[in-house]
């Protein structure tokens, strides 16, 4: 996993009282600055500005945010609701917030006083944080083995792999090594990565700013490309597999991820290239029946109109949905879902936690 001189997310009790400390991702790669969130509104603002981002890390942030409300003696269910609603698409955010709210509520119901219940909430947030780190390791192993032994072992023989990724899915989005990027890193450590193609990921450049930052630090061979250049790479036969993360996976396996993921899935299918989604089971939402039911965050016009005439209107969805039939496999910490569909999703959700 990438070592950051400023930790991606940590809890502190001192010296100015409880707070969630974040590596401010809006300032990367130029500067590794820590952002102190001493109350729920400041954490919500960090979530909305993408200072803290990426589905698994949003879950961890939501969890610590509820622990923060409890430590401050605030209305915990209200705080959980506000945090869960800060961004709509990544299901992990609500999962983390509601899980800690539940632990706190049970402690109160069993007679715990405010301080003891706050300690229970913090312990639950720490548990989720540790589980996410563990899940990263398992996903990396499952994804690496799937690529090297099953999907591409025969086809490419001894040839090293050229993997294409979108957005940022490494240690900046996780308690551990991340999701899709963790698989690429594991392939690199197995000395089988020829190149990681990094989509710059318009408009906020999570690929060019953040994935390139992680690839540089971890010593992966990588190239940044504008999102629209992916088609020519596929056409030239220079992509062996696509690896992306997910913000929400519906019960049918349809997957919401950073806008631009769906076109990659279409390209991959057209060129017969495997398209892999790597995500922890906490990103699967059995309550969302299909892709059409996933709420897609719409962001401000200013993010895309900097070079347009004054007053230009914009279409700026943060995510798009890839239908299940275009996904070759979903790699989770509990194992691989393939073929992707309702049965496989239900099976992995009910599998034992360590796959
Ligand atoms: O808007 P962002 O930067 O939070 O979007 C993040 C993504 O789309 C990631 O690909 C997704 O959360 C998976 S991260 C493991």
TrEMBL record:
<feature type="binding site">
    <location>
        <position position="87"/>
    </location>
    <ligand>
        <name>substrate</name>
    </ligand>
</feature>
<feature type="site" description="Transition state stabilizer">
    <location>
        <position position="167"/>
    </location>
</feature>
<dbReference type="InterPro" id="IPR027363">
    <property type="entry name" value="M1Pi_N"/>
</dbReference>
<keyword id="KW-0486">Methionine biosynthesis</keyword>
<dbReference type="InterPro" id="IPR005251">
    <property type="entry name" value="IF-M1Pi"/>
</dbReference>
<comment type="pathway">
    <text>Amino-acid biosynthesis; L-methionine biosynthesis via salvage pathway; L-methionine from S-methyl-5-thio-alpha-D-ribose 1-phosphate: step 1/6.</text>
</comment>
<feature type="binding site">
    <location>
        <begin position="53"/>
        <end position="55"/>
    </location>
    <ligand>
        <name>substrate</name>
    </ligand>
</feature>
<dbReference type="InterPro" id="IPR000649">
    <property type="entry name" value="IF-2B-related"/>
</dbReference>
<protein>
    <recommendedName>
        <fullName>Methylthioribose-1-phosphate isomerase</fullName>
        <ecNumber>5.3.1.23</ecNumber>
    </recommendedName>
</protein>
<keyword id="KW-0028">Amino-acid biosynthesis</keyword>
<feature type="active site" description="Proton donor">
    <location>
        <position position="247"/>
    </location>
</feature>
<keyword id="KW-0413">Isomerase</keyword>
<dbReference type="GO" id="GO:0046523">
    <property type="term" value="F:S-methyl-5-thioribose-1-phosphate isomerase activity"/>
</dbReference>
<dbReference type="Pfam" id="PF01008">
    <property type="entry name" value="IF-2B"/>
</dbReference>
<feature type="binding site">
    <location>
        <begin position="257"/>
        <end position="258"/>
    </location>
    <ligand>
        <name>substrate</name>
    </ligand>
</feature>
<feature type="binding site">
    <location>
        <position position="206"/>
    </location>
    <ligand>
        <name>substrate</name>
    </ligand>
</feature>
<comment type="similarity">
    <text>Belongs to the EIF-2B alpha/beta/delta subunits family. MtnA subfamily.</text>
</comment>
<dbReference type="InterPro" id="IPR037171">
    <property type="entry name" value="NagB/RpiA_transferase-like"/>
</dbReference>
<dbReference type="InterPro" id="IPR042529">
    <property type="entry name" value="IF_2B-like_C"/>
</dbReference>
<dbReference type="InterPro" id="IPR011559">
    <property type="entry name" value="Initiation_fac_2B_a/b/d"/>
</dbReference>
<comment type="function">
    <text>Catalyzes the interconversion of methylthioribose-1-phosphate (MTR-1-P) into methylthioribulose-1-phosphate (MTRu-1-P).</text>
</comment>
